[in-house]
Amino acid sequence: MTTSTEARLGSSDLTVFPLALGGNVFGWTADEAASFAVLDAFTAAGGNFVDTADVYSAWAPGNKGGESETILGKWLAARGNRDSVVVATKVGAHPEFKGLKAATITAATEESLRRLGTDRIDLLYTHFDDESTPVEEIVTTLDGLVRAGKVRHVAASNISPARLTASLEFARREGLAAYVALQPQYNLVSRDTYEGELAGVAARFGLSAVPYYGLAAGFLTGKYRQGGPAVESPRAEGAGKHLATERGIKVLEALDAVAAEHDAELATVALAWLAAQPTVAAPIASARTVEQLPALVALAGLRLTDAELAQLDAASA
């Protein structure tokens, strides 16, 4: 069985591959050459949706933020394929442009455009909500960027249901550009970070969810096992903590069973479960090597049965 290899983002005219390639590793655990190779392999497999942020990867020693956007921009220029790639980035968390005041959003967006080497961003997220700034100011500023042609569509990440609702209602009332997508933390071992009120707001307003941590920092690939070998990864500590929970163990067991039925990788099954959830258009997952990519893009060709979805639901409850 196959699934559609296209998903529409909310009410926008953006049609994307059902997996967004995470750019958080570009300039961090993947250097420029490795990043180019991953991007080449992703687009060769039919991928067209790349997710980055202006803060990636300020946390890495020697970096100051913007490294991922810079690498992505160089790749777009080298390949001459800007029109066939949906570029999503985020502002509000860069060390020099923190928060969502009007001037900060505008300045940060100009810097992102410069690093990306493009005249427009297809999907611009507010990375973290800034509750010290009224939603009216944020939405009006984003609308100005859309009207100026610098941004095609806007979206939000890490925002409360109340602030998201207020933002959407204000945009609708004033006829301004409204969020078309939402980027929540969401995966088989982190369901309450999206399900419930936040997912309800997305459904009510027709937003598409583009979840991050789709593989729980690598835990849902199955490489972390009780009594198994240590995993060399900057994210090992965060991923490994799920082994200490009953839910984590149950989820791995269910993933093993479903993956065996399809002769598929655990990562593919975990992402396919996510893609099958209401409102979800395209989960985000990153690959620092070309070898990690096939299991991710295979999600486009895997449809889980209702029984398998229920089995994973029960294990992750």
**Number of continuous helical runs:** 11
Quaternary state reads: single chain
- Rg, alpha carbons: 19 Å
Q: Helices and strands, in N-to-C order?
A: EEEHEHEEEHEHEHEHEHHHEHH
Strand share of the residues?
5-15%
Poorly predicted regions: none
For the sheet with most strands, the description reads:
8 strands, parallel
Helix % is: 25-40%
Choose one word for the global shape: globular
User: What structural category do the secondary elements indicate?
Assistant: alpha/beta
What is the mean predicted local confidence, pLDDT? 96
Features:
317 residues, alpha/beta, 12 strands
Topology of helices and strands:
Layout: E1 7-8, E2 15-16, E3 20-22, H1 32-44, E4 49-51, H2 67-79, E5 86-91, E6 93-94, E7 97-98, H3 102-116, E8 121-126, H4 135-147, E9 151-157, H5 161-174, E10 179-183, H6 197-205, E11 208-209, H7 236-240, H8 246-262, H9 266-275, E12 284-285, H10 293-297, H11 306-316
Parallel strand pairs: 3-4, 3-12, 4-5, 5-8, 8-9, 9-10, 10-11
Antiparallel strand pairs: 1-2, 6-7
Helix pairs in contact: 3-4, 4-5, 5-6, 8-9, 8-11
Describe the structure.
- The chain is α/β, with parallel strands linked by helices.
- Helices cover 39% and strands 13% of the residues.
- It has helices at 32-44, 67-79, 102-116, 135-147, 161-174, 197-205, 236-240, 246-262, 266-275, 293-297, 306-316, and strands spanning 7-8, 15-16, 20-22, 49-51, 86-91, 93-94, 97-98, 121-126, 151-157, 179-183, 208-209, 284-285.
- It has an eight-stranded parallel sheet, with helices on one face. The chain has a two-stranded antiparallel sheet with strand order 1-2. A two-stranded antiparallel sheet has the order 6-7.
- Helix 3 packs parallel to helix 4 and helix 5 packs parallel to helix 6 (197-205).
- The relative contact order is 0.14.
